[in-house]
């Protein structure tokens, strides 16, 4: 098995609430990525639906066995596909989900665990929080998915890497905020620095796929890319443009990084567990007093 994997990132501008149009866009980018030799193509958060859905949420929600989702999973027969949509569970709960599909089957589903409800964000009003943080095995390596806000909580990449993940996929719908100049946003700078820190701290490759375009006056800037375990960007997409960018990740880079900077090896999980249990007991005791 090759140590190198060719990754394509589809930095697209989804059409709000138009599932059919977005499905067609996904198929076009999958074909382009396949033709150019990519082994995995990664789409942004809610690339199949758009982000500011509000009352459109129920209309665009799809179960995993819906024909639209099945057709996209079928497209993964000769190229792996990471895509995101509004998922409706069997209980009719709504989640912001991302699927990793390979060889015509669903390998993993991650339901967004942290739903921002501050500023312009109102996700918890429409969706339910996911409760599982688990890596998945594909092509001989363990990977994990973090959806946008998930990655702003250090517990999430910590949990995935402590369970063996060496690749983290981060689909996002991050708007440009705190404009610094024509091509730089405070949110863009924060994402770059955050992902570089995680990559070095945990010795992983990170694939960041952020959307572009406008919805209801909100600008999504893009800036997608791949960060290596040494903290350097292997490839970066431009700001504000729909594009398909390519980069290669090499398992041997993770091996080298984790040997030279063995932070993950030296992590004391039992120390963390002991303190979390103590904190949990203290919180329970405080609740009883109240």
Automatic annotation (TrEMBL):
Q: Which UniProt keywords apply?
A: Acyltransferase, Hydrolase, Transferase
Which residue ranges traverse the bilayer?
A: none
Task: Show the InterPro entries listed in the entry.
Answer: Aliph_Amidase/BUP (IPR050345), C-N_Hydrolase (IPR003010), C-N_Hydrolase_sf (IPR036526)
Q: Name one GO molecular function term.
A: acyltransferase activity
- Extract the SUPFAM superfamilies matched here: Carbon-nitrogen hydrolase (SSF56317)
Residue ranges of coiled coil: none
Gene3D superfamilies registered for this protein in UniProt: Carbon-nitrogen hydrolase (3.60.110.10)
Q: Name one Pfam family in it.
A: CN_hydrolase
Give any single GO term for biological process.
putrescine biosynthetic process from arginine
Please give the name of this protein. Acyltransferase
Identify the species of origin: Alicyclobacillus acidoterrestris (strain ATCC 49025 / DSM 3922 / CIP 106132 / NCIMB 13137 / GD3B)
